[in-house]
Amino acid sequence: MTRDGFAGAAFGAAAVLLGVGVTGGTWPTGRAALVCALVCGALGATLLVGRRRGGTPEDAKPPRPGRSSLVAAAVVWVLALLAGGIWALAPGDDGTGDTDAAGKAPAKPSLDPRPAVAWTVPPAGQAGDESVGFWGLGSAVAQGRIDGLFAYDGADGHVQWSVPAPTREALCAMTPDTEEGVGLIAYGRHDKPCATLLAVRTSDGRVLWKRTLGGEGLVEGALGVGGTTAVSAEDGAVRARSTESGEQRWQRAVPQGCETLAVDADATRTLLAEQCGKGARLLALDTRTGRRQWTRALPVESDARAAVVSVSPVVLAVDEADTRGTSAFLGFDDTGAPTVTVPLSGPEGVLSAPESVAHDDSLRPVVRDGLLVTLAQRESLVADNVVAYSLKDGRRAWSYHAENQTMALTAEPDGGLGVLEYSGSGRIVLLDGTTGKPGTRIEPDTGKRAAISIYPELVPVPGGHVVLNQILMHAEPAAYALR
């Protein structure tokens, strides 16, 4: 083939490929097609110049290229490069030609809509193993797994520190949060009480003290920390210890015929829910001294389950055995007077509650700025709504209907809320905390999809979020981060 034939074939092939790609929908269109056309034109001009420069093998004296040919080739190449640069830098056009109903290019969200899965933590344990809880530690996240307590760095997921479970023991309890840089965890053996209590410093994982509890060990869901005081229900009493030394500060014996349903505390108040016979009551104690502040009878006439949702303001979740009995979030003021009642099943559907009282999906509701926010099942068998209720009058303040199943809820540092939705491997939607209006959506990229399990937890960290898989189902990662 002659040089002219080769040039013509190359240029013709490029033009044909471009035409087929554009018409078939598999090649770029719009600005991308313009760039391709200019590049092909520049290629053709260059080959033409080359042909004039080299002539044919039979030419004894090849003609010199004309000045106009060189200038034309250079101009076409400059236009191609300039168009390519403009195409790459211009916002709102990815070369696909997508537009909205008004014919305009869709607006970009405030964050990259497909950020990468920044890191993952390999699965730990066997299928069906369930984690106990978690602590948000600012730039890190601590997960209470069956094999111990592990703190992951929010930036890269490496284990900053750990408190491994002893041989043949499993983590069986931990406080819902930490205070003054200290949290409590507990271990127990198979089919034995949850009876080894430890205080852990969250900055470095150091165990400050350890106590072996007698009797039946800890009461499930009855371990909290407020200020520098740890409060636990155990062995027929509620005891308070120093988080720094483990020294006992006070104890309150459980009255005969009563049992502890739930305990939690902050620096000034400890809430204690007790069942006595067919009735129940809520007590507020001084966290430092154990002195009783007030007592309030609960609207219960049968066996009940309870969970402290918030210590200040006071919010309790109660589920009574009587199907016509109380099953609701109950609010109280600082004197113990009832303020609001939000039924767990009502006009907004079935509300998600803490695990000890949940009808179906379990969740830590968020209490913030006078609102109780939780998930709800309304028109499907899974939660797909976020609902906020006023703690002043119990009325619905706002609701958000998700496109997918809602799985976890968290309070964001800026006052908003984060919702984890099930969309393949989990999507995070950020809501305005006052109105519930959705804002930024954060999704895993398609190249690094991380599996999400049932009952995950969502924790904000600087620059992103960490998803904790609390139940291992099919070798999902123990945790992963989205940016």
Features:
3 helices, 34 strands, 6-stranded antiparallel β-sheet, 14% helix, 4-stranded antiparallel β-sheet, 483 residues, mainly beta
Q: What is the gyration radius calculated from CA atoms? A: 32 Å
Largest sheet: 6 strands, antiparallel
Structural class comes to mainly beta
**Topology, number of strands:** 34
Please mark out the parts with pLDDT under 50 across 5 or more consecutive residues, or reply none.
1-73, 75-81, 83-113
Whole-number average pLDDT? 82
Shape: globular
Query: Count the helices. How many?
Result: 3
> What is the percentage of strand-forming residues?
35-45%
Cα distance spanning the termini: 55 Å
Helix content: 10-25%
Task: Produce a short descriptive summary.
The chain has 483 residues and is mainly β. Helices cover 14% and strands 42% of the residues.
What order do the helices and strands come in, and which of them pair?
Layout: H1 3-24, H2 31-54, H3 67-89, E1 117-121, E2 133-136, E3 140-145, E4 148-153, E5 159-164, E6 169-174, E7 182-189, E8 194-201, E9 207-212, E10 218-226, E11 229-234, E12 237-242, E13 248-253, E14 258-265, E15 269-276, E16 279-286, E17 292-298, E18 304-310, E19 314-320, E20 327-332, E21 338-343, E22 345-346, E23 349-351, E24 366-368, E25 371-377, E26 385-390, E27 396-401, E28 405-411, E29 417-422, E30 427-431, E31 438-442, E32 456-461, E33 464-469, E34 479-482
